[in-house]
């Protein structure tokens, strides 16, 4: 009967999901060389190539696509069995800034759950400033936020480009205040945007403030306001209207992961989280 090396199967699943040997190595805390060796042994054991690797991409072979779901189930069953023996349930408080949280959040949480089924993840969405305060107070285990000007700690995850987003038909009459929607009164992006408008001598008024991402996106999509947002989380069907109306260019911002956890189990979960986060912000690459 064919038996499989669980760690080799874990490597295959990680590479397949992250589409990168580099990101898989980071997530598993190992090297690309070790990843390649384990994958080669698994393919030799199965007798089929599971991944097709080119200088620009990593993709599943037909055999790999057929094997992936069963491989995920095998890893999940293994983790549940091991967790039931020697890993007591624990909670993980994770803060994600509203200007950072995008459509990949369910994927991030799914990866963490698959990695450690006995880990209960409590997610809090808020402004970067508020989440940093909670993290510093020890009320969050980790936080993914936009870097504050006066802080240089945290693990760099990505660089976000921002713009002034509204519908194609958004109307702004000369002389009237620019109608703004903002996620939070304590949002750093809001502060930067309004400061730049003031410096440029552009009048503005807030028509939506602190209603959360759903309210802001609704206001923007309805054509009643413009919002300073990351390109990645801008509502579908909206465009950057900054150039059309002569609005000041918004600076890019660094997205960083803060955590003070040092135990092996938590650090492993954070590696998976960081790798999954980067996956949605980097071009697909084989390396």
UniProtKB/TrEMBL annotation:
Keywords attached to this entry: DNA-binding, Transcription, Transcription regulation
**Per the record's keyword annotation, is DNA-binding included, yes or no?**
yes
The UniProt entry, under SUPFAM superfamilies, shows:
Periplasmic binding protein-like II, Winged helix' DNA-binding domain
Gene behind this protein = hexA
- Report the domain of life of the source organism: Bacteria
A GO term for molecular function: DNA binding
As for family, the record states:
Belongs to the LysR transcriptional regulatory family.
Q: Where is the HTH lysR-type domain?
A: 4-61
> Would you tell me the protein name for this molecule?
LysR family transcriptional regulator
Q: Which Pfam families match?
A: HTH_1, LysR_substrate
Query: Per the record's keyword annotation, is Transcription regulation included, yes or no?
Result: yes
């Amino acid at each position: 009967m064919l038996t499989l090396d669980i760690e080799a199967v874990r490597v295959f699943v990680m590479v397949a999901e992250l589409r990168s040997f580099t990101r898989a190595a980071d997530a598993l805390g190992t090297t690309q060389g070790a990843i390649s060796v384990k994958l080669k042994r698994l393919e030799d054991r199965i007798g089929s190539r599971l991944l097709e690797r080119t200088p620009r991409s990593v993709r599943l072979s037909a055999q790999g696509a057929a094997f992936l779901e069963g491989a995920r189930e095998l890893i999940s069953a293994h983790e549940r069995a091991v967790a039931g023996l020697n890993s007591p349930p624990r909670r993980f408080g994770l803060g994600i800034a509203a200007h950072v949280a995008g459509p990949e959040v369910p994927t991030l949480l799914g990866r963490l759950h698959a990695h450690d089924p006995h880990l209960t993840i409590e997610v809090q969405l808020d402004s970067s400033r508020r989440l940093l305060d909670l993290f510093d107070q020890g009320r969050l285990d980790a936080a993914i936020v936009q870097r504050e000007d006066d802080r240089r700690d945290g693990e760099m995850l990505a660089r976000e480009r921002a713009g002034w987003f509204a519908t194609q038909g958004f109307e702004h009459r000369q002389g009237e205040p620019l109608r703004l929607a903002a996620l939070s009164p304590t949002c750093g992006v809001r502060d930067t945007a309004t400061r730049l408008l003031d410096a440029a001598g552009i009048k503005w008024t807030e028509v939506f403030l602190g209603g959360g991402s759903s309210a802001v996106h609704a206001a923007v999509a309805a054509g009643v306001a413009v919002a300073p947002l990351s390109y990645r989380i801008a509502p579908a069907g909206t465009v950057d209207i900054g150039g059309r109306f002569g609005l000041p260019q918004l600076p890019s911002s660094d997205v960083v992961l803060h955590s003070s956890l040092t135990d092996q189990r938590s650090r492993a979960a954070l590696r998976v989280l960081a790798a999954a986060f980067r996956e949605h912000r980097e071009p697909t690459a084989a390396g």
